[in-house]
Protein 1
Amino acid sequence: MKPRVAVALFGPEGRGSFNESGLQGALRARASGHELAVHWIAPAEPRGRADALRRLCREGVDLLVAHGGQGDAPVAELCGEFPDTRFAITQGSHLSSNTACYEVLQEQSAFLAGVLAGLASGTRVVGHLSGEKVRPGLKGRAAFAHGVRAAAPDCRFVTAFCGHQHDPERAYRTALALQREGADIVFAMIDGGRDGVNQACRETPLRQIGNVLDWVARDPKVFVASAVADSGLGVTAAIEDFAAGRFVPGTRKSQGLESPESVRLVMSPELSATFGQTIDRWRERLIAGAVVPADTYEGPELDIPS
């Protein structure tokens, strides 16, 4: 009998590039012959997410793949309750005797995005925004800020979390707040709320660096770059490893800039022509381990009223 596999995507169905990446990873696994069910987990708080995953486990699941750092808290609660179920968390951090993590190193492309933003900013103010304060978002913010400092120590860095990955209105207000602080480039690590950031960019001189997917190809008028990190590859790898008997609980599998299909910085033609060689040199240093992106940020943060 084939293993029972469930993939959990957190947020409104069909919304957001991070979930799009995860869905494509599940569909790749299905196209390769693996049977699986995709479930959209609507609750926004950890308790509701844990309850939703608990219902899936009670129905009978051999492998549950939780896509994203939002899966850390609920899986940490459930892995002891369902010891015979294997859990995989993409971009997560919780490890246990029946849990493994699969990640693409978003922090590496985020660092390069910070280098580019610092070099390209005309106002010498660079912004960052995200939704929820989950570990992948915090690591991405820290790496981006590190890249800005490394390449452009004269730049001011402004950052804010709007509190929700899928709320365009909150993301819009947050982007405008960063622009009022003087930012002309913003790194937006956001999912279903990205339309709000895009709207702010169309209404102001603010320009955006995206993440997960190649946003430059999708909307070149808004995006000057994108810190690509195809997290859906972790979904595919977890399912394939489990089916082949290679799934090892308590371990983490990572892919970074050495695999450009997984992680890379995409730039607009104009920025590539001006800064491409510099970015390549930083990329080589990251791959060689000569530079390690910071994983914590201790600086100030804007308080955005809800």
Note: The chain has ten helices and twelve strands.
Protein 2
Amino acid sequence: MNAVRVGAIQMDSRPDRDRNLVTAARLVGAAARDGATFVALPEMFNLLGDRATLRAGAEDLDGPTQRWAADTARELGIHLLAGSMIEAAGARRFNTSCLYAPDGRRIATYRKLHLFDVSVPGAEFSESSTVSPGDAVVVAPVPPLTLGLAICYDLRFPEEFRAQGRLGATAIALPSAFTAATGQDHWEPLLRARAIENQCFVLAPDQCGVPAAGPAWHGHSLILDPWGTVLADAGTEVGHIVADLDLDRLGEVRRRLPALDHTRPEIYG
């Protein structure tokens, strides 16, 4: 099989960066020992808490979290997606993912485009009171994949993933802190839809557990193939999952059902 093994990390991050980085190091190391050459962490993996905690814990891209990620990628010899964190960029704040190459170089930076300003029972949050939205669709090489980068609530906006596909994406990474209130009905169906309609692999590392304050997280980090088949599910506990992404299967799906060749952007943009 012409395949690449990837891993997704599931965490219960808290308002304690040092604790969270110790957990992340353990789980990323375990995924690498299981053969994953690309590993993705969840949204806010380094620090998760209320609005004041997030703003106070914001870091620039040369801060301790990103130095940890660069060092970890280099030490393990893997591509590592540092889930997301609150980035301090001058006076502004962003919800930002950074992708690192096996030599520790940062090769892509993605700032979340769609902010979670929602009032659903059990999932009330105003993300725009903490961060600003990004302004760019991002894809990056993770050989043999071309990876589209997105974060959590972006999942509900299929236009972003179609734009990634036009840039050559063969896989999507979606670090998340998806609430249990919406996740029980929407998480897997939306992930399967993004995989199916874009005929690509999807890696969705998520937060899990019930924090002392704020919403409960859904868990169930998933890895899916281009047919929408779930290859691995992390359940509801802290841990990691790995799966082999069959590149021949990707080609077969796109040849047998050439939907991507039938899009008409000249009509609908």
Note: The chain has a mean pLDDT of 96.
Protein 3
Amino acid sequence: MGYSDDLRLAHVMADAADDITMRRFKAVDLKIDTKPDLTPVSDADRAVEESIRGTLRRARPRDAVVGEEFGKTGYGIRSWVIDPIDGTKNYVRGVPVWATLIALMDEGKVVVGVVSAPALQRRWWAAKEGGAWTGRSLTKATRCQVSSVRRLDDASASFSDLHEWEQAGKLENFLDLNRAIWRSRGYGDFWSHVMVAEGAVDISAEPELSPWDMAAITVIVEEAGGTCTGVNGASPLEAGNLVCTNGLLHGEVLKRLGG
């Protein structure tokens, strides 16, 4: 596996991120009165991204970095793509479904991905041609494999927010898909997609995402045997949205969502 050192480094950076986010999570989830105050979250977001960028400056000085908080720095055929806290609204309300997403792209292809969700005590990761894994650490891991559900009416789907489908002008398409399947749940954010990788659900979709929301997820789902595209069937990072399936259902799902 050509990227094992990069994967190990991503785990080290995720460990540091977990320390920061868990400390701040306990501070910000105490009490929300009338309106969620996102100030402590942006503070935690910046602290995580700064920590990761500091490590990369020392360990991978030639690589570019693209992050949600501080944009793009550096140039090169390799770039690290960072979402310091995916699931910010959950984080601020004390809901444990949030994660740090770390990906490495080499010549435009995602080759390493780590999704670390410390409040769930879970982590998912993959490197190109090395399979997808989940567990608490590199040494305590089980392999991820997508489901073998072949029929839409047996399929389970997860999504994040109906309002976003409405804003994208695709609510009817999305509801059409929901009517055709066995069940749907709004597990939300990164969790929907990594559950496709581990075979817990068969379909996940979000109508609008940034590259840092998607990069780490795509390699994990694909290495677990699944398929990731945009709603229109193109590369998700170019499309700006994401549909993940076990592969078997992908064509049918895209047809319902109406590219």
Note: Residues 152-257 form a domain with the D-Maltodextrin-Binding Protein; domain 2 fold (CATH 3.40.190.80).
Protein 4
Amino acid sequence: MTIQTPATELLKIKLPLIQGGMIWCSGWRLASAVSNAGGLGTLGSGSMYPEVLRAHLTKLQAATDQPFAVNLPLLYPSMEEHIQSCIDFKVPVVITSAGSPRIHTERLKNAGICVLHVVSSASFALKSQAAGVDAVIAEGFEAGGHNGREETTTMVLIPAVRDAVQIPVIAAGGIADGRAMAAALALGADAVQIGSRFAASQESSAHPAFKEAILQAGEGATQLTLKELAPVRLLKNPFYQEIQSAYLQGASKEELEALLGRGRAKKGMFEGDMQEGELEIGQVAQSIHDLPSAAELTKNIYSDCVDTLRDLARFTR
């Protein structure tokens, strides 16, 4: 069985699987490995200075001749320079998130770039479609990192977005294996985006201590917090407990901003400070127990999805 969808056609990829562009985890090694395995590898530009993104793009283009993407979280600095780099390097696909799709979509599309936008509701999906994006990534609140305030689960979100728009829909949030991928397709998605599972892979640029923390995460190990600033799902560690203590003491938005400070995510995810760092990961961390290669992950998730879809035929008469 071969799964071909409007998303695989649009993105010119063999498998309907996108690797999420996670800050501090998604460098050129991970992106090229996923793209070479038939999916869409993605650079996480939110953690990169402009010159760093350009260096990663140079290495990525040398490592693969397959389509790839750059994730542009619009709330981070350097987005103007990043957009120009995407245009200069003729990046095939850009994934925008954490901001309005109206701001940059036309400019990117005029440069021949396919634009996807991350949404957390059907209403945002409609606005993205009206802004001219080529597809939406509907991300449930199970996902790691920055998230929607509505706390809509992937199971509810995907069919709602599918019913609302005519453009391709990519499902994200809580997807880490072939069973979840098959479920997302059944809900109406044309492809899936997977982040947390790839954070715990050989090619992920996450610190080994963070990878180990993911492997040790159990049920209830993550929590969505800091809604007053930008909702983010974190692994519970001493820094997370500091945030909870601040809430109990009635901390203001300004006090929460001061507590968060700058560089917390880098401190935890990239430098390996498991005490004071911000550790962004999805709920599905509780199901991650090994560190395979990205190629192995990509191929196994897809083949398990195909097997699951075939197995479901046993319920038909």
Note: The chain has two domains: 6-205+289-315, 208-284.
